[in-house]
């Protein structure tokens, strides 16, 4: 295993931090991180996450473990070679067209889409993802769109949440500034 980059984020508007590292494991990629934050409903959370991708940045699996308030969290997400998704060994329908996993509580997983899409300046792409909803406890589809505006700027849209913003990205692909949500500290 080789660590290629690390980052520390501070949450904007709510207490919280997230730390993540990007690793290379043979031909595979992995992000490994931890988040401690106050959830929108007031509960405090501590979550460790890990997501593995193949050499083309297609998600293979992810895990999320920790707690949210008084609730233990222990989730295993698998994306099989036929495109199917499973959450704790239970198949999740209607996500077969999604390539990426997005963990809704961290900015770390945006790196996966940015690396996989590898957009040139001026290019845009839709990137529907299998999105982990901590509140609902399930995987659902989240439509996203990225448009690369410069070496470090991407216009991002997630219509489901009525969210659009200019994301500032590090040379490694981590989000440096996620307006109203997260900002890198180191």
Task: List key phrases describing it.
186 residues; mainly beta; 14-stranded antiparallel sheet; 3-stranded mixed sheet; 17 strands
Overall pLDDT: 95
Uncertain regions spanning at least 5 consecutive residues: none
| Sheet with most strands | 14 strands, antiparallel
Number of helices: 1
Strand content is over 45%
Tell me, what's the shape? globular
User: In angstroms, what is the radius of gyration?
Assistant: 15 Å
Order of strands across the main sheet: 8-7-6-5-4-3-2-1-17-16-15-14-13-10
Number of strands: 17
Provide structural commentary.
It is built from 1 helix and 17 strands. It is mostly beta strands and 186 residues long. The protein has a 14-stranded antiparallel β-sheet with strand order 8-7-6-5-4-3-2-1-17-16-15-14-13-10, with helices on one face. It is globular, with a radius of gyration of 15 Å.
Summarize the helices and strands and which ones pair or pack.
Elements: E1 2-11, E2 16-25, E3 28-38, E4 44-53, E5 59-68, E6 71-79, E7 85-87, E8 90-92, E9 100-103, H1 110-117, E10 124-126, E11 129-133, E12 138-142, E13 145-148, E14 153-158, E15 163-169, E16 175-178, E17 182-184
Parallel strand pairs: 9-11
Antiparallel strand pairs: 1-2, 1-17, 2-3, 3-4, 4-5, 5-6, 6-7, 7-8, 10-13, 11-12, 13-14, 14-15, 15-16, 16-17
């Amino acid at each position: 295993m080789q660590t290629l980059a690390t980052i520390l984020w501070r949450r904007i508007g709510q207490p919280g931090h997230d730390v993540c590292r990007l690793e290379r494991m043979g031909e595979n990629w992995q992000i490994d991180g931890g988040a401690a934050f106050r959830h929108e409903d007031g509960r405090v959370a501590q979550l460790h996450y890990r997501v593995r991708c193949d050499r083309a940045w297609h998600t293979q699996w992810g895990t999320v473990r920790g707690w949210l308030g008084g609730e233990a969290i222990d989730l295993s997400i698998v994306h099989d070679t036929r495109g199917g998704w499973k959450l704790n060994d239970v198949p999740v329908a209607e996500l077969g067209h999604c390539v990426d996993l997005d963990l809704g509580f961290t900015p770390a997983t945006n790196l996966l889409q940015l690396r996989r899409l590898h957009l040139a300046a001026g290019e845009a792409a839709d990137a529907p993802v299998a999105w982990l909803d901590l509140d609902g406890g399930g995987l659902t589809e989240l439509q996203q769109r990225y448009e690369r505006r410069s070496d470090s700027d991407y216009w991002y849209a997630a219509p489901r949440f009525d969210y659009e913003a200019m994301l500032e990205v590090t040379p490694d692909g981590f989000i440096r500034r996620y307006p109203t949500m997260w900002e890198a500290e180191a």
